[in-house]
Amino acid sequence: MTETYSPPEQIGPNNVIYWSTSKQVLEGVKQGKAIIKKALIFLKLGLVDYDQIDKVFLVHPIPNYNKTTYRIHRRDKHFACSCQFYNQVSKHWEHPTCSHIQAVKFWLEIKRWNKT
Ligand SMILES: [Zn+2]
Predict the structure, then answer these.
(1) What is the structure's pLDDT at 14?
(2) Which of 5, 20, 65, 96 is 20 to 30 A from 80 via CA?
(3) Ligand 1 geometric centre to CA of 39 (Å)
(4) 92: in domain
């Protein structure tokens, strides 16, 4: 999956992704799975970080793959990302999840789980 987005001609269960607030899961099969898969790569490579000074989450680039560090801000209960995918999709849907936001959510979950 590349992080570009162009609106599909038709929207169906296989090409739509959105965050289900009631179920707290990513809905939509194809892209949803791709986002989770990529988020897990960020986690495994230890690329998720938190900037204490700027109070922003950081997802560092995958070595030899891309060069941009994305910044993820927390806005109330939701997250906003600086990547192109998020900015495109957020024009059509409220509070979309990109692979970086998903990585941060997993990262926080892991931290919370391991604290106890
Ligand atoms: Zn992003």
Answers:
(1) 47
(2) 65
(3) 10
(4) yes
